[in-house]
Amino acid sequence: MTRARARDGRGRAPAGGCAERGAVTAELAVGLPVVALLLVAVLALTAASSAQLRALDAARAGARALAIGQEEAQVRALVATVGGEGAVAEVQRDGTWAVVEVSRPVGGGWFAHGPLRATARATAWVEP
Which of 58, 99, 106, 128 is most buried per CB count within 10 Å? Predict the structure, then answer.
């Protein structure tokens, strides 16, 4: 026994079956770029928050080191170690306060030379 397909008067299949075959492909073609864009946005936010935390940690460590009397060269080396590749420090002694501002790139690899940079500033009281 063979099953015969129901056909309308013009020899076409009814609207319920074969007409929906391309719908999944069209939905996937529209939805996949949206999912990829969301993934890129989540990864960019993760990289930015990680870079901001590293810059803040480096600024705090540098301000503490400057406050206890270490030389600026040692403070800059410490900031470079804690802040990671590309971290740049501005060091100031303002009377009884030590101020360190750190800037570092948000991305790594190809994106390390991009325009996005995380900055952080820390202030510590200079030890007598």
Answer: 58
Q: In the chain, how many domains are there? A: 1
Residue 27 lies in a domain: no
Rounded Cα–Cα distance for residues 74 and 97 (Å): 18
Residue 105 lies in a domain: yes
State which residues form the domain around 112.
40-125
Of 96, 89, 100, nearest to 126 (Cα)?
A: 96
Q: How far apart are CA 40 and CA 45, in angstroms?
A: 9
Name 94's bridge partners. Answer: 97
CB atoms within 10 A of CB 49: 12
Stretches where the chain sits below pLDDT 70 are: 1-20, 108-114
